[in-house]
Amino acid sequence: MSKLEADSKFKNSDLVISKYVYHLYSKIKRTFKSIDVILKSDIKNSYIETIPLLRIIVESYFHIAYINKNKSRMRLIASQYENLAKLELFNLGKYYHYWSLETDIHQDYLDVIKNHYAGKKEPNVPNKLKKVYLLAKEVGRYDFYVELYTLMSGFVHFSPNTRNLHGEQQDDTFTFNKYVYDEEADYSIRFHLIQSIILAIGCIENIFELDDYRVNILAPASEDWHVIRQMRLKAPQ
């Protein structure tokens, strides 16, 4: 990532959409560092605790892929994201408005209602930017969504079905903190982590037209990753 950041075409871009790509890139980088700390910790089965963070990276990748797909219409995409930011404040004001009908609330909340909600129309934002599964379909990665947002949602939100990964069940007795390592789950998480970052960087390279970076850095890294994937797929299970 340091070589990407050092590329003059990346760090000095005047593209109208660049501020959103920078934000998404920074989010991916910081989240990856957090995941790395967790995986290297002494927490047993630490890969489980990285799932919520992995979903942040995957969702950020979806947005970068969406921007890349529409790079020829950057002003339109920039306006969509500007409206998305306004919509988030509008929804916050809407929430505070209904809350204010039931109880006294702080003046700061009233200011949010006044500035972003009261008397204003809801900002127009495409549904694909408001719903992650639609965004995943839009960029052709619904497979990521199904596995990480559907199958693994129980790890992010409370689900009694995930308790066995935090303990051991024997007959009618459940013992917490007796972890059973799940190699496939660990591999799947690490696979999606690396795959998502490589795909996101590939989109960023295309958005900023980083030809030298693509040839000298991204292409060799992608080839190495392909070889590793193939070795893992051919390994006896």
What would you note in describing this structure?
The protein has a two-stranded antiparallel sheet with strand order 1-2. Helix 3 packs antiparallel against helix 11, helix 4 packs antiparallel against helix 9 and helix 4 runs parallel beside helix 11. 68% of the residues lie in helices and 3% in strands. The protein is mainly alpha-helical. The two termini are 33 Å apart.
Features:
237 residues; mainly alpha
Summed up:
The protein has 237 residues and is mostly helical. It has helices at residues 2-6, 8-11, 18-39, 51-69, 74-100, 107-116, 127-130, 132-138, 142-151, 153-156, 183-208, 211-234, and strands at residues 167-170, 173-176.
Mean pLDDT: 88
The proportion of residues in beta strands is under 5%
Which stretches of 5+ consecutive residues score pLDDT under 50? none
Structural class: mainly alpha
Order of adjacent strands in the largest pleated sheet? 1-2
The largest pleated sheet is described as: 2 strands, antiparallel
Total number of beta strands: 2
| Backbone CA Rg | 21 Å
General form: flat
Helix amount, in percent?
A: 55-70%
Helices and strands, in order, run as: HHHHHHHHHHEEHH
End-to-end separation: 33 Å
Q: Total number of helical segments?
A: 12
How are the secondary structure elements laid out?
Layout: H1 2-6, H2 8-11, H3 18-39, H4 51-69, H5 74-100, H6 107-116, H7 127-130, H8 132-138, H9 142-151, H10 153-156, E1 167-170, E2 173-176, H11 183-208, H12 211-234
Antiparallel strand pairs: 1-2
Helix pairs in contact: 3-4, 3-11, 4-8, 4-9, 4-11, 5-6, 8-9, 11-12
